[in-house]
Design brief:
By secondary structure, the protein is an all-alpha fold. The chain has 5 helices and no strands.
Length: 102
């Protein structure tokens, strides 16, 4: 199961999953785990999309699920997802997409 350090992490993930109409990600977050390597890749790619979107939102003074310190939450979420995926055996999937533009 994905173990969030802060409950706000899940709220922000769901906010952006809904905003970006990422139904597959909503399902992963609701389930609390990825089922396979493909879902691990989807979650990793979504994380970087979410970061891009949160940067835009922060620049415009928008919040995400009532939270404004989006850069800090992006870092918390990155640590949570990275730890979860590596511990679940999906280190390759995380590392293959851990730098946008690779």
């Amino acid at each position: 199961m994905i173990a969030y350090k802060y409950p706000e992490e899940k709220e922000i993930l769901m906010h952006y999953a809904r905003k970006l109409k990422a139904n597959d990600i909503i399902e992963i977050i609701d389930n609390g785990y990825v089922k396979n390597a493909n879902e691990a890749k989807l979650l990793t790619a979504f994380f970087w999309q979410m970061v891009d979107e949160s940067v835009k939102d922060a620049e415009q003074g928008l919040d995400a699920a009532g939270h404004r310190d989006l850069q800090a939450y992006d870092e918390y979420i990155m640590n949570t997802l990275r730890s979860y995926l590596i511990n679940a055996g999906y280190e390759k999937e995380w590392n293959d997409d851990d730098e946008p533009g690779q």
